[in-house]
Structure formats: structure tokens, C-alpha cells
Design goal:
The structure is a single chain. The chain is of the alpha+beta class. It has 3 domains: 116 residues, no CATH class; 124 residues, Beta-Lactamase, CATH 3.30.450.40; 172 residues, Histidine kinase-like ATPase, C-terminal domain (Heat Shock Protein 90). The protein contains 14 helices and 13 strands. Strands 7-9-10-12-11 form a 5-stranded mixed β-sheet. The chain has a 4-stranded antiparallel β-sheet with strand order 2-1-4-3. The protein has a two-stranded antiparallel ribbon with strand order 5-13. Strand 11 and strand 12 form a beta hairpin. Helix 5 runs antiparallel to helix 7 and helix 10 crosses helix 11. The longest helix is centred in the middle third of the chain and has 50 residues.
Amino acid sequence: MPEAGRSSASRTPPFTGYLTAVLMVALATGVAAAVFGRKMLTDVVMTYLLGIVLLSMRAHFKVAILGALLSVAAFNFFFIPPYLTFSVAELRHIVTFGVMLLVAVVIPSLTQRVKDQAELARRSERRTSALYSLSRELAETFDLSAQARVACKHLAEVFDADVALFGQDAGAELELLGASAGFEPAVAELPRLGAWVQGGCAADGPPGASGYYLPLRTPGGATHGVLGIYPRDPGRFDDREQRDLARALAIQIALGMDRATLMEETRAARLRVEAEQMRSTLLSSVSHDLRTPLAVLKGTASAIAEDDAALTPAARSELAQALLVETERLERMVSSLLDMTRLESGAVHLKSEWQPVEELVGGALRRVDRLLEGRAVEIDVAADLLVPCDGALAEQALVNLLENAAKHTPAGTPIEVAAKAAPHEIVISVSDRGDGLAQGDADLLFEKFHRGSSRRPAPGFGLGLAICRAIAAAHGGRAWAENRDGGGATFGLSFPLEGKPTAERLPEMTEKENDRLG
């Protein structure tokens, strides 16, 4: 709620207030004359004092004092002989007048003191409430533009005014961060405001400014901009209490902006650290995992180039097979890097359709048949089970799960692929009979470049499961891992059935790239 600009003690009462005092004295005189006459002077005095008390409670202090003076004069004029004159025949009446006047003046003074204390308490409560409300709202926002909207809305209500908030850019130039609803501050004032800030904000705004301006400065001296208040009542900030409240609110806004700036700097620093860690991890992974296939490729190519004539057909076939295996491994590594990059770029649309789960599983198995040689693969998928998903991406996720199972389990151990319909989702899982998951690995395995603590280290960048999680999340589902009874682990993906699949933007891939994933 807008606050009053001035206290009741400082305002000049209007003419109607003085007229009220005259009417109250006239009423008291009429009642005293009609009820008590000129004999019961004590009761007459009490009648006048009652009128003064009523004036003190409801009217301005000056009005109450006028009522007290008029009451003494009316008492003398109408009830003290000689009547209808201001002459005093007896000395004792002068004492009565003095006591009556003293009491009549003390009553408004005491009443005004009580009023002032009550007004002070109300103002203190309003000030505390305004500061607390603004601080709470600012604490719930974490960027400068949102804080500017909150601050302008709050101050517009407190001061019944239009409000604008100007921030400083990197070059110390002022720019508009936000304004109260429907208000557009004069851009022409920005140069003067900038000069005022550069000059140390010596006064309440630059000379000739259209509003009341305050620097957004923290107690530590950091200046984040300027607060402009344009009250509808031109005399709003003639009251010192209103100016003090505005300054206190400006400090709260500055502290909020300071906190938002520090949080942004902290986020930026954390991102830089994470980027550096990612770069180091990537370089380490690339240098380690590409060395083996490249060495095999080089050695095989050298053997063919140097001893081609001496090679038997069987030896030549074996070398060609080694070239093929290492080339496929290298292709998978590079593909994982490309897929993860595109999945994080947010540039590809999901092409979600109802897909037969049996076909997705069959397509994934065909793509990893070389890795699964010598293993029994058990499939538990209903022929009529359908899942709403992007077929190419879902199949790629299954390929990654199957590759993960093949790499981290003993050769010849079985792999199970299952799919079932849950109440609100389709769940597809790949289970193995390997060593299982180490404690704490269940969530970390889906982080980029994390390889887990398996006793069977496998080549690769540690991106396969991270890609699975990204694909599942894009569909509104999830990816998880858990140990299974009897040894081994289960890795699962879920695809929600409720409503349409999330139209979340994923890595934009060309048809050729989608064919690669398919």
C-alpha cells in the first residue's frame, strides 16, 4: 500500500478543521447552557473539556489548541458574570480560566504525543514490512533482469509511483534494466544520470531531473546502477522518513544485484573449470584410446606394404580382418564423440512415432553382431509391443547398451534383452552376467567420460552410457543401472506412454547421419 507522504503532526490542517473546532465549541456551549445553565459551572467546564478531548482524538493538534482557546473564551463570555463580555469580576475566575486553559492545552499535547508514537510504530512496521518483503522477493530471483522487475513492482506499490531501474554495463554506461508496468522512462536523462554517478552521486539526482534518483550502492561501496522513482504526489519525498525508506530499499536492491552478479561470476568460473577438466579428460581419453587402434592400423598396413609378396592368403586375410576390426573400433569412438556433441547442442528434433520394440532390438543386434560372437543372446520382447520414440535414436541407445555389456563382461557369458509395458512407460533393459556394479557406480556410469571401476577395462571414451541417458531424457524418460540377483548388472531405458513424447530439441542430424545411427 502507498504510504502517506507526511505525518499528521506536520501537515497543516485545512480550513474545515478549524471550522470543526468552532462548531465543537458552539455545540459544547449549547449543551452546557441547556443542561447545566449558569449555576453548575463545574459541569460546564467538564462539558468543554469533553469537547476538547474529542477534538484532540480526531483532529489536528492545532485544531485542538484552537478549540481549547475558544472553549475558555466561550466559558468566560457566556457563563461568567458579567455575562456576554470578556471582563472578569472576581479573581477566582481568573484562576479557573488558567487551570481550564492549562488542562485544555495539556490534553491535546498528550493526545498528540500518543498519536505520534502510534504513527511512529506504524511507520516502523511499514518500513520493516517493506524491507522484508523486498528482501524475500529478491532472494528468490537469481538474475538481474528478474530482480529489476521485482524491485520496480515492489517500489511502485510502496511509493505510489512509476519506477525505473538502471544498471551499469561493463563500460560503466547506464542501461535500463526494468521499469514498472506501462512506464517508459525518458532515455534523454541517461547521459545526465551517468555523469551524476561518475560524479559520486552527491545529491538526490542530477539538477533538473524529472524523478527522485538514488544510487544502487552496497554498504561496501560497490555501485550497480541507479534507482529512479517518479511519484504521483510531487511532495512525496519532502518527508525525510520517505527519503530514508527509499534509501534503505535502494540498498536492499543493490545487495540483491551484488549477490546476482557474484552468482553469475561463480557460475562462469565453475563452467570454465568444468570446461578445462573436460578438455583435459577428453585429451587424455583421445590420446590413450586412439593410440591402440592407430598402432594396429599402422603395423598392419606396414606389414602389407613391406611383405605383401611373401604373405599367404590366410595371413593376408588375417591382416585384413585386423584392419576391419580396428577401423570399426575407431569409427565407434569417433561416432560417440560426434553423437554426444550433437546431443548436447540442442539442434535436432525428435521424430517420434510408434515403433515395434522387436524391430528396434533386432536392428541393434545386427549392428553389434561382431561384438556378440560366441555369446548367447536371450530376447524377451512381445511381438506386438510398441513404443513411442525416435526410432534411430532409440536404436542407437540400445546399441550402446549392448556394446557396454559386451565390453565389460567375460567372453561367452550370456546377454539378455527384455522389454515390458509398465503402467505409464515402456521399459527396455539389457542384462549381463559380469562382475556387477561397484558401490556408487550406478549413477556415475552415465556421466561423460566415466568408465566405472570394472576389473575389465575396455577401450572407449566413456560416452556410450551418457548418450543413452541423453536420448532417454529427450523422450521424457530415464536411464538407470542396477545389480541383478545371481551376479551381473541390468541397464535400462524407459520411454513414457502418457501424451505425446517431449518435443525437446536434440542434436540436428542430416539424413545421412540418421542413416548412420539407423
